[in-house]
């Protein structure tokens, strides 16, 4: 059984040197044409995750250039892709990077609020989307890592994620492997598989997970007004205006990463801490049961406390603060927030409209918004166009 | 298709009378399995999950002597540690009952034990360790013998660890023959759990549970995670066995798990329990000979989510043991009218209880405790045992207990009986 999105991407990415630049990129820069061609272009753009096909990764419309340091070479990216999907990189062969960052689910996971790792152990947090991750300056929800190539060793070594007990044995195995040995040698002549090159290869693959050049970019950065519907335009206006979203999810004059490369306390963590006794549980479609969680002996979850950026800096102002996520492709990667506590984009908008989660360190930019139902709906459809 | 029991084999079985339609646990074995133990079972094999801090922490096959009067009656006489904790779960015999296949839901390994040569000391003869990579599926759950083949129902897939999955056919040597996806159209949700075959009707039923993410996750967390709770199966599928083609998808809300066909001749119905909705469902033909599934009874108080887990049907299909995990209770339902099962007896077995196996005559009933490593209760409530009882039609009387924690074994899960060959068919 082949993994479809993987297979498609693979065919696009495995013959990079001779294949022409991806159609989506050309379309993005010359948005002319009519009829069926236009529909096809629109479709292509809709699904435009600009996977590397040329020597250098060409950023689609609306994204800045990918730093050459991270982008690596096509050979590195191919190797990185293989590593990213390889379940045997985990201690018991059950988890690859792609089991938590699932391509068909925005390189995040729709399966659960919190990621589930080695032997089913619960992580504290929701797996973030990896779209455009090469541009993210502070990695993880608390921003504790700044180097994409170094980041990979986090999950590889964490006992509750991929659970490798050491670095040496994994590297030695890859060096000796009939497939990996030569691939590493070809990608990193003279170096082969090392702690560094493994990280660089995966980072190079991740750097190609670009999400841009879509309808939003054509409309806002390509001058093609009709690429967004009137309702989406309304959502856009609210996003950068009345709703104040762009104060943190920043849009630039030529490109938009939807992040200020910083962290904020929006009150999600503070809010999630307070759970009540009864809870509506969906036992089957349409079968909702109001369950007294404590009474049935299921109150104690394994999820430990989380105070966000504060854990890294010890600065009281950073309590319950999390990095501002980049919102591209966000409609694919529910549930939302660092703890996956909001199931839908509509719930996210309700959350912001209500002024976030009240707490002593709430970011002053988070305040009740007074949005009408129409306005909320418009922001939701706008987010869907990213 | 190579994977299927040929018409000839089926006919031979049916016409030759070699096949008594029988699935008891003894009543839950495949009807294609020979050597049904109608007399006294001698050994009980428990597929045991390794538990951190308990003994060597490794999954193991534990063998217990259950011959009354034997010097080692009710005692562990043999263990094989297979290494690691991979979420040991269910087992199934090959058609000749000489080999016992045991699966792990986490790392998807299948261990094949020789229990034919000397059932008191099973030997590991083969490990299938490429299931995920060779089939794309994950979590081998039910092992169901077909003539010369082993049909395996997986629970998940390696694309997203969700519940969309398939059936895998191996030959008895453990070589992959073919895969069959669970239906995704005509109401199918693609999920899988158990397999139960009615050869006389050429019908196979499958049920549906959930994917890796949910069955590996802490139960308390799961029940409070709306994004995860929507990923449970809500269907059963009726298949044409010989063609291995889905015929009809039934809506059976709330994770229908174990399936048992009535073994009484002429009774063409099957029963299952919806774990989350706490209901028994009957699968039976209506007046127009059309197969239907319908809810026929509640198990306990559904608002408390008692979690009906394993069930065991009597060989005459007159009664059904149903274990509810959360309250650790075994409940006996009278099935004399399968359209309206009635609970007639209940006994608390422990803080938690999952599996139940009864002897062919129903006089001995065995219980174990573990459901899934991260669904089992915590701390003092995490009792892990095998308990053997006698059933006189009125009362369960405890015969022996093996405390799996005291013995340094781990979490006790699936049970299978063996007996030395000659004793097997003796009534």
Explain what the structure shows:
The complex is a heterodimer of chains A (386) and B (427). With 386 residues, chain A is mainly α. Chain A has a domain at 28-212: Orthogonal Bundle (Cytochrome Bc1 Complex, Chain D, domain 2), CATH 1.10.760. Chain A has 17 helices and 6 strands. Chain A has helices at residues 4-13, 23-29, 35-46, 68-71, 74-84, 97-100, 148-151, 153-157, 168-176, 180-187, 195-207, 215-221, 230-240, 268-273, 310-313, 345-353, 373-384; strands at residues 49-50, 210-211, 263-264, 278-284, 287-292, 322-323. In chain A, the strands form 3 sheets. In chain A, strands 1-2 form a two-stranded antiparallel ribbon. Chain A has a two-stranded antiparallel sheet with strand order 3-6. The longest helix of chain A is centred in the middle third of the chain and has 13 residues, at 195-207. Chain B has helices spanning 7-15, 131-135, 212-216, 219-223, 226-229, and strands at 43-49, 60-65, 76-81, 88-93, 99-104, 110-114, 123-128, 137-146, 149-157, 166-171, 176-181, 195-198, 203-206, 235-240, 245-251, 256-261, 269-274, 279-285, 291-298, 308-313, 319-324, 329-334, 342-348, 356-358, 364-368, 385-391, 396-403, 411-418. Chain B is globular. In chain B, the strands form 7 sheets. A 4-stranded antiparallel β-sheet of chain B has the order 3-2-1-28, with no helix packed on it. Residues 1-24 of chain B have low confidence and may be disordered. In chain B, 7% of the residues lie in helices and 41% in strands. Chain B is mostly beta strands and 427 residues long. Chain B contains 5 helices and 28 strands. Chain B has a single domain (7-418), classed as YVTN repeat-like/Quinoprotein amine dehydrogenase (Methylamine Dehydrogenase, Chain H), CATH 2.130.10.10. At the A-B interface, strand 4 and strand 5 of A face helix 2, helix 3, helix 4 and helix 5 of B.
